[in-house]
Design goal:
The protein folds into 3 domains: about 110 residues, Jelly Rolls (Sandwich); about 300 residues, Glycosyl hydrolase domain, family 43 (Tachylectin-2, Chain A); about 160 residues, Sandwich (Jelly Rolls). The radius of gyration is 25 Å and the shape is globular. Helices cover about 0% and strands about 45% of the residues. The protein is mainly β. The structure holds beta-D-fructofuranose. The site of beta-D-fructofuranose has 12 residues, from β9, β13, β17 and β21.
Length: about 625
């Protein structure tokens, strides 16, 4: 997605006048009326311009803004309006309101003793501007080149993903008015190839029932709901004083949605959220998985028509990780590699309580008869979809082609997601991953996670090293173009070595150390010296995965994309996703064979194709 620098057209005089009561000399286009220590009204006097550009200061509390059209409240949202200094600006699209009448923003700033001024002295009133455009050119050093990010603003969970007519739709928890969690809406992106993403208008905005939390979408090809053949029906949690389940229908393939008039469709009385809906062939019913967050259970509901839902059963009490809230469920049928068998996998995102603190995605293998999920794993057997710290809210695409099950996770962790050192936007998604099951040497079934084959299209020039035996250590330069964004593929055989260490480092002495331990059958990643780590005490960590293999041979794929490292076992036995914020890109790859020899079967370093980069 290419963005161009557009000249911001200002109609507001550089020095805006305001004082108690109406301004003496109103600036062109807007009038700022200060109404005391915390209340301010902004009248839009020039309705011809698209955006009101709002200055944001991240450390201050949210102001509440009611948008009044002819005196009626048409919309409410929250923004950290700049008090002392401006970190960045966000656009508020006025056109849906100015087209209907006179627009006044009634703004209440909380009285916060951390700043000793009345709202009337805030810098935001001077710097608020009308404009016909908003500049979305990338200003961020850590913005990934090949991972989906919002152009600006905050993102968390992937939502409502479906595939239709060659297009992958991705919605996501989005704050369009700042880069911290707030104003939950469904942002929207589309892709024809799972690599390049176009940014679409926000698809679902907060309404009278609350903000729009996570959920899913299905294509109703049988018109079971009566909304029309192939209507796209989205389910989300309406979150306000309570959390209830709502529905919205799209008749234009997922670009715009109309909220269902009979919402909520499930008026649950306990905290439950993140509905994931799918069609169950066996019972010819729609199934909704719902996270009963505080009960540590996933509820199963069924429906013939997407509108009327019946509670079937719950799964989870006592199973797996129980420390945090249960969120963002999914239930998928997966093939077992090397057999004709299929099994069901229940995905359960949990926060906190992840293996390395904070958020993580666990899964359970079992059976599902359309009414009840029965788990094959022992109650205390906890398994993780990804053994890094930055893989959460993972769910799968509805209707993916070729019977594939394609998953996407939010590449962050609630422990520090709001604090990571970016500003214009916050958070990226993981690379898309194809899921299946495999039988490990212990006889059990585990989730196999591999990068979706589409990501191979990102590869640009390749540097290949033929097989050799490593007795001590060897170093290679990483591609410098694209800030070292690359894929590294490594085939190894730990013949008699006690370990293989893989180090990514830069001239500043920052490094990420990975290590295979053939005795413990583990792979670890240590990011304690990876670069900027001090923004959260939870950030510097070492994460460890079981390799679920008894072989001394294996392959590893590493994807390095400015602020992230994703490590995938070549056979899918484990995935590990960790954010990193090096002050300079890592420029060197070092391999160390510990106490013995390692055969390097292959080493390929692919510069990821700059021509394909999402964010230049
Ligand atoms: C998971 C989550 C969901 C909720 C959403 C709100 O990260 O807490 O349970 O719907 O985020 O943004």
């Amino acid at each position: 997605m290419k963005t161009t620098l557009k000249k911001v057209i200002l109609t507001l005089a550089a020095t805006s006048a305001f004082s108690a009561g109406a301004t003496d000399a109103p600036p062109e286009g807007i009038t700022v009326m200060s109404l005391g220590e915390s209340n301010t009204m902004v009248r839009i006097t020039d309705p011809t311009q698209k955006y009101l550009i709002l200055p944001v200061e991240e450390r201050v509390p949210d102001a509440r803004i009611d948008v009044l059209v002819n005196g009626e409240i048409a919309h409410t949202f929250h923004v950290k309006l700049a008090c002392n200094e401006i970190d960045y600006t966000v656009p508020f699209d006025l056109t849906p309101y100015t087209s209907k009448g006179n627009v006044v923003l009634n703004i209440v700033n909380p009285i916060d003793r951390s700043y000793s001024r009345d709202a009337q002295d805030f810098i935001c009133w001077e710097e608020m501007k009308l404009s016909d455009s908003f500049d979305t050119s990338n200003t961020e050093k850590y913005r990934p080149l090949f991972h989906h990010t919002p152009l600006y603003g905050w993102m968390n969970d992937p939502n409502g993903m479906f595939y239709k007519d060659g297009t992958w739709h991705l919605y996501y928890q989005y704050n369009p008015y700042g880069s911290k969690w707030q104003n939950m809406s469904w942002g929207h992106s589309t892709s024809r190839d799972l690599v390049n993403w176009d940014h679409e208008p926000v698809a679902i905005r907060p309404n009278g029932l609350g903000s729009i939390f996570s959920g899913s979408a299905v294509i109703d090809s049988g018109n079971t709901g009566g909304f029309g053949v192939d209507a796209v029906v989205a389910f989300y949690t309406s979150a306000a004083a309570s959390q209830v389940q709502s529905m919205a229908v799209s008749k234009d393939g997922g670009m715009t949605f109309t909220n269902y008039a009979g919402n909520p469709v499930i008026p649950n009385t306990h905290e439950a959220r993140d509905p994931k809906v799918f069609w169950h062939e066996g019972t010819q019913r729609w199934i909704m998985m719902l996270a009963a967050a505080l009960n540590h259970e996933m509820e199963i509901h069924s429906s013939p028509d997407l509108v009327n839902w019946t509670y079937e059963s719950s799964f989870g009490r006592g199973y797996g990780g129980q420390d945090g809230v249960w969120e963002c469920p999914d239930l998928i049928k997966l093939p077992v590699k090397g057999s004709k068998k299929e099994k069901w996998v229940l995905i359960c995102n949990i926060n906190p309580g992840g293996p390395f603190g904070g958020s993580a995605a666990q899964y359970f293998v079992g059976d599902f008869d359309g009414h009840k999920f029965t788990c094959d794993n022992a109650v205390n057997d906890t398994r993780w979809m990804d053994y890094g710290k930055d893989h959460y809210a993972t769910v799968t695409w509805h209707n993916a082609p070729d019977n594939r099950t394609v998953a996407l996770g939010w590449m962050s962790n609630w422990q520090y997601a709001n604090e990571v050192p970016t500003m214009q936007y916050r958070s990226a998604n993981t690379l898309p991953r194809d899921l299946s099951l495999f039988r490990a040497p212990d006889g059990d079934l585990y989730l196999s996670v591999v990068p979706s084959p589409e990501v191979n299209a990102m590869r640009g020039s390749r540097e290949s090293h033929s097989a050799f035996t490593l007795a001590d250590s060897v170093s290679y330069s990483l591609p410098v173009a694209n800030d070292g964004v690359c894929e590294i593929d490594l085939g190894y055989n730990l013949k008699d070595a006690k370990g293989l260490t893989i180090i990514l480092s830069n001239a500043k002495g920052e490094k990420v150390t990975m290590k295979y331990d053939p005795r413990k059958h583990t792979f670890l990643m240590d990011r304690q010296e990876s670069g900027l780590t001090k923004f959260s005490r939870h950030f510097p960590t070492t994460t460890v995965a079981p390799t679920l293999s008894r072989s001394s041979k294996g392959t590893l794929r590493l994807f390095i994309d400015r602020c992230s490292i994703e490590a995938f076992d070549g056979d899918g036995n484990f995935a590990m996703t960790n954010l990193v914020f090096p002050k300079e890109p890592y420029t060197t790859l070092t391999l160390v064979s510990e106490d013995g020899k390692t055969r390097i079967d292959n080493l390929d370093i692919f510069q990821l194709d700059p021509a394909l980069a999402l964010n230049k």
